[in-house]
Structure formats: structure tokens, C-alpha cells
Amino acid sequence: MDEVNKIVALITGNVSAEQKNDILNQIKSDAQLRKEYNSVKNAWALSNSHTSISELKVERSYLSLKEKIRQQKPTITMRLYPILKYAAVLFIVFGAGILSNKYLTAYISGNETAKNELTEIVVPAGQVAEVNLPDGSHVWLNSETRLSFSNNFTGKTRIVSLKGEGYFEVLKGEKPFVVSTKFGEITVLGTSFNVCAFENYEFQATLVEGKVRYKNIEQNKNVILSPGQQVSMSENKVIQVHKVNTKIYTSWKVGIIIFKNEPLREVMKKLERHFAIRIELEDEQLSDIRFTGNIENENVFEVMQYINKTKPIIYTYDKKLKLLTLKSK
Prior knowledge:
The chain is an alpha+beta fold and 329 residues long. It has 3 domains: 1-74 and 81-93, no CATH class; 106-250, Jelly Rolls, CATH 2.60.120.1440; 256-328, Phage tail protein beta-alpha-beta fold (3-Layer(bab) Sandwich), CATH 3.55.50. The protein has 9 helices and 20 strands.
């Protein structure tokens, strides 16, 4: 039984007790398989469907999806995490072919014959993408993120434009590598770091190893970061440097979200991107409740149960609108 059939069989209950234990042990020991399992599990929960899935139908859908991606012939090396593979397969099964060729091509745009053409990558909600850039640098892009860059990095710098969140492993080179955001620029020569530059979230640049410079032209500020440091800019544009646990800010690239004493309003923003749904808090008093914990194997409803232990809540999910509503119990 291959990975596709193992995960689908486990979630739909089409396995013996012995097979179930074997598959669960594999999931525990294989991080990639665990990430795939979590994606399918959440898609299944949100579908609220009791229809059994034909293994043949899933396999055909998956092979069809792989062929569509292959035919796009992108100008850069890009791998969508299995989150996309299984979410797409399940939506084909549940949604009568909602996935289209247009949906697939939305991820990469640009003219592959023009060396100086600008390439843009768009990652939808609920997905994570992994990309090799033209210079050999590596980047992971979080959901609802846009990254654009020149196909061959002409000029004096290797510059990319980021809207959203990305984790960068930059290959050393003579040209400085620059990440341009609405909130400022991060310049490096070779290093690993995370940049969070969403419109509705506090800007953060977190350095894992190496050295980077954060430049904010509007405030005429230059900040040099050392490993384990983070520069942030609040909504009122106050720039600060902190010593942080970098794992908290980079674990999303391996499918884990870590919260440490975060207000529920900020937790909800991350959950919306992670599960590709909308979340509304009907009671304003819920916004400031602090939450600490990790999300790895849980689907969205299991997360709601954890939150319920911190603060009793009532939640409802509108499948048609993909809207989760929370209020105090």
C-alpha cells in the first residue's frame, strides 16, 4: 500500500487494527508522511463527508494532478508540499472537479523565454511552497504569500520582493541578497532567516544563522542582527530587537505552528492561513485571551477543543462559506 492509499485508508477507517498501528507508527517516525497525514485529515474534517473514497479514484486524481503540474514547465525549481497534493485530490472527490488548470498555473507566472522577465509565485491559503531560486538559494513560502524576482538576478544585487512570510537559506555569492518588503529591506550575503511581512500582522525578521542587516528608509534605521535575534515593527511603527527562540518563528515550514502566550486574535490569523478558512470572533472579549501550544497533527476542530479548555467557547462551521465562528459559552 503506497503513501496515498495508506493515509486515505487510515482516515476513512478502511484498515485493520494491525494495519492502523503500523501506519500510525510510520507517521510518527516520518516527518514528511506526518505532514501529508495532517493535511488530508483536516481536509476530510472540513468536508464533513461520509462518502467512502475509492482508492482508484484518489490515485487517478493524483496522477492527473501530477501531469498538469508537469506540463506547466516552470522556469524555476518549485515543489508544492504534499499539502497541495492531498487537498487537491480531496477537493476533486468532494467538489466535483473544483480544481482547474487555471488554479494550478496561478502558482507561477512569467515568460520562460525571457531571461530578465519577472517571475511571481503565489501561494494560496492552506498551502506551503518550497522554491529553488535562480542563484541556488532555497526558500519556503507560507500560505497567502507572494514572492517575485528576476529570472537571472541581473544587476548589482539579488533582490526578491516578499508579501507574506518566507524562510530563506541564501547561497553565498558576490552579490548581496536583498529581501524587499513593505516594512523595509533585509540584506545578506549568505545565511538562514525568516521574514514575516503580512499586511495584517506585526513585521518580524528572525535570524537563524549568519548575519543580516534590516534597513527601514522611512525611519532612517539600520539594524544588524546576530543569530537568535529578531527585529520587529509594531502597528505604531516602533522598531525593536529581541532575543528569541527561533524555532517558534520557523517551525511553520515543517508543518508545525507554535504559539507562546499569544492573544487569540493573533492565533486566529495564523489558523486562517494554515487551514484555509475564515474565522470570526463574535465576542470581542475573546480577542485578548492568551494561548500557548503547538499545532502539528490536529485538525481545526481539535484545535477548537484545545482552545475550549483555556476558555469555554461555542463554535460553528459554515461549510459553504468556509467560515468558523467563535463565541463565549
